[in-house]
Specification:
The protein has helices spanning 16-24, 50-56, 118-124, 142-147, 167-176, 201-204, and strands spanning 32-36, 59-63, 79-81, 84-85, 90-95, 104-106, 111-116, 130-136, 155-162, 179-185, 188-193, 227-228, 236-237. By secondary structure, it is of the alpha/beta class.
Amino acid sequence: MEPPDEEICYYSQFGQDHWLVNQAFPGRREGFFVDVGAFQMANGYMSNTLALELHRNWTGILVEPNPALCGSLEARNAKLVQSVVSDSRRRLHFQFGDRGCNSKVVADGGAEVPAETLTDILRREGAPSDIELLCIDVEGHEPQVLDGIDFDLYRFDCIIVEANGVQDAIVERLESHGYRFIEHHRVDLYFARKGFEVHRPSEAIPDWDGKPNRARPVPSPGKQALRHPSSPPWSTPIHRSIPT
């Protein structure tokens, strides 16, 4: 029996994981996710996939190229890959910032680093061909990440992509591969494969800002233990044995 909503802890910024747990994949256990640009704060805040991992026993691949932002990701059960993702294997300029929003591919400056495609990563890590969830948040480089996916090899039930000012390019690419555009909700674009019916997130996510069982921002990403936001001030340590 699944726990009631108030016993589940949510970590996303705008209710993405609430929509995933309760609308897109209600009761689905042991699914697989791919989270590109997986930065999260020390208490897990900003993760779209942590609630699925902790409460539904999902696993998957976390892609975060900036080692300075990987502290709390190293405590996750999912496989952490530190790599810059793009449309081909090439060298790019990457700005290593102190937060997710300022760690990104840039035209000039930063450090020159090798990039690979998401298909390269999925093949190397032995990802299944049918994947429940893909999340992408790479600060404007999302179209190039999508261009590096072999959609004949890998299929996704739901895709969440941060718009980052390139909405039209994202929608065009995913619709060309047969994905249905659901909605632009808050900062993200939501998609589903044809035949996978879900409610629009604007209709399905409750009063998110006032929701008590969700994580809030913490001062530093640091290499601290993940925290469980079960009650203010969000300070109970997360344990792998959380009842599910």
